Amino acid sequence: MDIKEGKFSITYLPERDDVVNKTNNYALIQLDGFLSYITCDSEATMDVWILEDFHGQVWSKKHTIVAELTHYVCPSKSTRPNERSMPEIGKLVAVGGARNGEVLILKHQKNSKQYLYYTKSRVLGDYWYTMSPNESKCCRSLIPDVLSNLPDNVIDVILMCLPCKDAVRTSILSKKWRYKWCRRTEFTLDKSHWVTKNDLLHPTIKFKKIICQFLTLHEGPITKFTLDIVNLENSPEIDNFIYFLSRNGIQHLVLHLSFDNPYKLPSSVFTCSQLRHLSLHNCSIHHSSAFKGFNRLISLELCEVIISSELLESLIYHCPLLEQLMLVILENLDTIEINVPTLRTLDFTGYISSICLKNSPRLVKLSLEGRYMEVEDLDFAKVFESCSALEHLLFDFSNFELYSEDEEDDRILECLELQRFSDVTFNHLREVKLKCFGGTTPEMQLIKLLLAKSPVLVRMLIDRWFLEHGSLDTRLRILNETQVPRISIQHAVDPAEHSRVSDEPPCFPEDSVISFS
């Protein structure tokens, strides 16, 4: 009967040389999820068939039990002499299976004695256990061990939801759970693994012990790994473990390291061909001859890293599917060119002369906080022309060289003339944030440019902490006189009032807001 369809159907037994009749010894049982037909053709052989295709009625012979090839495990000496020899195969009937079909449970026709037959080793042994009436009663009343009987896929899901430290502790639940954590594919090592009430060991020593366990016990791939450690000394174990990850299918790698000196990234990182997310903090990156490109990488974060302009440019260029790029560079860099057609977000903070954006038709979010970045070198016209899909824009004026001894610097104003942007229109730009606004003429020119070229702009947030008291109203009145009928100005926070209660600058968006109806 097909339980799913709720109907009976005819199953034809496998074709054999003789006809199955009442004298034949045969049985139908379930074996490893298949309907199994087991028959004895003689006193010394038994055939095991399985129905591989129910709808096509395809049978195949899985195993043949031959008495001469079977090793019989003799029962204990207390057994009667006539039971110490192997029973006749022809007098055994199959009643079930175990271990995914590797074990057959057989029963003798006369004395109902049960045997276990191991198909791989061809061993036949007694299945014999006696218990007292009290034990039998207790056994019937026991509740099944739910945790031990969970399917492997359910156990894997549970382990993935637990913190790494708790997942390892599940080994004490039962024998089935022991070392199941070794198949886990995602791990996070942070201070929670060695910061305890009684810190007797240095974090480096604890880290070495944990890594040793990983290398010894773990099975299968590790797709995501995060290492976030402070006060850890530079040690070869980190290099060895990264090499281990590179050979085990790592796809998401995060290294947040806090050394006195930046951690020198090993060349094995550049051989991780399956990487999709890479985040590096406080690392020193050098050229590797093994690097052929990250063809699957979609997210790259380089924070407080030491890297040359040439290597950074090459690294970005060899990520053809890159969508998210975050750069926090502490070293002085020259101009870098970013040419990634798939890029959607770019967040840059650091010391750099200029960034050249080319071919970025999908870029929707741009944030630039470049220290010592020259406006005339940035070339706003080329940047905006290559970012036709831009929706969110952030500039930090405190880091731009928009300031000059001569506020009317012709070089800066020339970069922001509307005539240079005749072919540029921000058809998707909805939000602009201007941090550390000082109210200089070039800054006002940039605001006018954005207002004139952004037909769907919803709001412009201006951080006026560095603006002289009273100057903002004058500047914004100039904007009111521009040909932007949708404009309305709101003041969210008075910087003078804020300074009386706090020495810190106000939170960025809580400043002057230019909204559009």
Automatic annotation (TrEMBL):
Residues 240-371 form the F-box/LRR-repeat protein 15/At3g58940/PEG3-like LRR domain. Gene3D superfamilies: Ribonuclease Inhibitor. Residues 2-118 form the F-box associated beta-propeller type domain. Residues 147-182 form the F-box domain. Pfam families: F-box, FBA_3, LRR_At5g56370. CDD domains: F-box_AtFBL13-like. This is Ubiquitin-protein ligase.
